């Protein structure tokens, strides 16, 4: 049975026709699309399907303003620029940002970087973005090549783009320089602004400003010193907006941090009944459809040789090992310290899974840096561990569909999308005992699939892995069941997500 907490009337129809909504595109501008990018795509899809005009706020520059050409021609060319930038993105590396923050006050740092001082002076002029300085680019796609790219599948839900040059960069630098006031942007022709994550940007001349808060992890777990100050400044700005939390765990921590009607942490206590706060569980993020099914006699799921890797220098996709249907367990995450990958690597190597011909698949990029050397060494030396690197959404979805189980050993999570996605499929998960995993366990019928293990109980992890056995059944029948279940939950949760968005948008 589905939890009453997320239940709405089936006949209720939510119509957002006539609303012009701006969604921030800062996460979609990254070279790698991770959890918040998936949230942003879900957000624009849900809003668009409900009838709203959805515009993306981008900091990418559009060059053409010439009076020699009419607006239609200029829009056509500027749109190509925006889509090209979005299709490639740029790398945002926390460790690099940490270096910038640490050395920002040193004059030698500015002198070593060509034209950096010039850019700094430019930023002082970008403390405000008047409406007349913004560029509004309609998404007129006749036969756009970008719409066929895997990472750009959200384009069909986008009405247009708002180009505010370097707005996210400017807001970051203002934090670094300890300028208290946020960047202001005049969006007078729009009704709602929704951020994909906390930002120190303040829209003016709009009716509703909603900030999405995924977690407080930069304040709770700080492998990169000085990053916490950046996040704290962004989080402080959410006090001046409506707030959309992606989990009750996150909202409870937020209330505790800001001392909002809370003196203890309890994710089960619903404190979201205000005009400014709402908890909304986002729809699952996998691309599951009947078209994903493979009808090959050898049951091959993943072949590294078919993956277009930009760089194959990190252990050559770890010896080009193959994966077969229902012969592997899945660890899906972009690897960083809080994911605690070393625990599951050691547990797998001490389990009997390899003797059962069951592999461990690590799906996600493993950074080629000093702290990853031990992880890469373990993976390379183990015949049963396979690393895919960063893969497309389609390949990731396929890996989920044919897995025996998923594993998540995170020290902390804001919600835990990999566990949530697996539960929607009806795929068993063996997960750490952080609060967010308990919350997922208590949703709908997910307790049947989410197995919580204490992180300190190493032998418990080994026993859990040893309990996993190969499937002896019709492979395609299992896949069809998972697809049907996923589609049911996807539809239901998306409706409930929209209901939460609508109530927050229309609250006074």
Q: What's the short story on this structure?
A:
This protein has 508 residues and is of the alpha/beta class.
Outline the structure in words:
There is one protein chain. The chain has 508 residues and is an alpha/beta fold. The chain has 2 domains: 20-240, no CATH class; 290-490, Rossmann fold (3-Layer(aba) Sandwich). It is 36% helix and 15% strand. The protein has 17 helices and 19 strands. It has helices at 35-49, 71-88, 94-103, 107-111, 116-125, 167-176, 217-220, 227-237, 248-257, 315-320, 341-350, 373-381, 393-401, 417-425, 435-441, 458-466, 475-505; strands at 20-24, 53-58, 128-129, 135-138, 160-163, 183-186, 192-194, 201-204, 208-213, 242-245, 277-279, 300-302, 323-324, 328-332, 359-363, 385-389, 405-408, 429-432, 450-453. The strands form 4 sheets. Strands 4-5-2-1-7-9-10-11 form an 8-stranded mixed sheet. It is globular. Mean pLDDT is 84; it is low at 1-8 and 306-319.
Question: What are the main properties of this structure?
Answer:
single chain; 508 residues; 2 domains; 36% helix
Could you outline the blueprint of secondary structure elements for this entry?
Blueprint: E1 20-24, H1 35-49, E2 53-58, H2 71-88, H3 94-103, H4 107-111, H5 116-125, E3 128-129, E4 135-138, E5 160-163, H6 167-176, E6 183-186, E7 192-194, E8 201-204, E9 208-213, H7 217-220, H8 227-237, E10 242-245, H9 248-257, E11 277-279, E12 300-302, H10 315-320, E13 323-324, E14 328-332, H11 341-350, E15 359-363, H12 373-381, E16 385-389, H13 393-401, E17 405-408, H14 417-425, E18 429-432, H15 435-441, E19 450-453, H16 458-466, H17 475-505
Parallel strand pairs: 1-2, 1-7, 2-5, 3-6, 6-8, 7-9, 9-10, 10-11, 14-15, 14-17, 15-16, 17-18, 18-19
Antiparallel strand pairs: 4-5, 12-13
């Amino acid at each position: 049975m589905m939890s009453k907490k997320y239940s709405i009337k089936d006949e209720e129809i939510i119509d957002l026709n006539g609303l012009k909504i701006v969604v921030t595109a800062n996460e979609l501008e990254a070279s790698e699309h991770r959890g918040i990018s998936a949230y942003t795509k879900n957000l624009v899809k849900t809003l668009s399907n409900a009838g709203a005009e959805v515009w993306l706020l981008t900091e990418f520059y559009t060059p053409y303003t010439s009076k020699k050409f009419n607006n239609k021609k200029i829009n056509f060319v500027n749109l190509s620029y925006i889509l090209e930038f979005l299709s490639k993105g740029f790398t945002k590396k926390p460790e690099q940002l940490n270096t910038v923050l640490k050395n920002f006050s040193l004059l030698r740092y500015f002198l070593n970087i060509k034209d950096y001082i010039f850019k700094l002076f430019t930023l002082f002029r970008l403390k405000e973005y008047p409406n007349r300085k913004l560029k509004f680019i309609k998404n007129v796609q006749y036969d756009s090549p970008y719409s066929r790219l895997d990472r750009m599948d959200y384009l069909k839900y986008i009405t247009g783009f708002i180009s505010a040059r370097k707005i996210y960069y400017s807001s970051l630098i203002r934090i670094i320089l300890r300028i208290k006031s946020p960047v202001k942007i005049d969006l007078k022709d729009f009704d709602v602004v929704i951020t994909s994550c906390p930002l120190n940007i303040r829209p003016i001349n709009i009716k509703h400003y909603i900030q999405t808060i995924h977690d407080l992890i930069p304040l709770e777990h700080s492998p990169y010193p000085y990053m916490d100050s950046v996040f704290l400044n962004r989080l402080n700005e959410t006090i001046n907006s409506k707030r959309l939390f992606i989990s009750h765990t996150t909202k409870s921590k937020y209330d505790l941090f800001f001392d909002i009607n809370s003196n203890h942490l309890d994710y089960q206590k619903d404190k979201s009944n205000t005009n400014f706060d709402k908890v909304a569980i986002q729809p699952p993020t996998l691309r599951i459809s009947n078209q994903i099914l493979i009808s090959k006699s050898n049951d091959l799921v993943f072949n590294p040789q078919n993956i277009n890797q930009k760089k194959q220098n990190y252990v050559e996709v770890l010896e080009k090992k193959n994966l077969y249907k229902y012969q592997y367990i899945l660890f899906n995450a972009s690897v960083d310290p809080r994911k605690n990958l070393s625990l599951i690597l050691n547990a797998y190597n001490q389990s009997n899974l390899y003797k059962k011909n069951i592999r461990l698949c690590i799906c996600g990029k493993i950074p080629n840096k000093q702290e990853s050397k031990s992880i890469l060494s373990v993976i390379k030396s183990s015949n049963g561990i396979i690393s895919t690197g960063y893969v497309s959404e389609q390949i990731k979805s396929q890996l989920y569909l044919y897995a025996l189980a998923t594993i998540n050993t995170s020290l902390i999570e804001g919600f835990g999308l990999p566990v949530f996605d697996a539960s929607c499929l009806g795929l068993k998960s063996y997960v750490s005992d952080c609060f967010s995993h308990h919350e997922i366990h208590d949703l709908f019928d997910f307790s049947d699939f989410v197995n919580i293990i204490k992180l300190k109980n190493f032998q418990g992890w080994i026993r859990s892995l040893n309990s996993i056995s190969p499937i002896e059944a019709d492979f395609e029948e299992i896949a069809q069941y998972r697809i049907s279940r996923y589609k049911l939950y996807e539809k239901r949760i998306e409706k409930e997500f929209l209901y939460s968005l609508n109530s927050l948008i229309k609250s006074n």
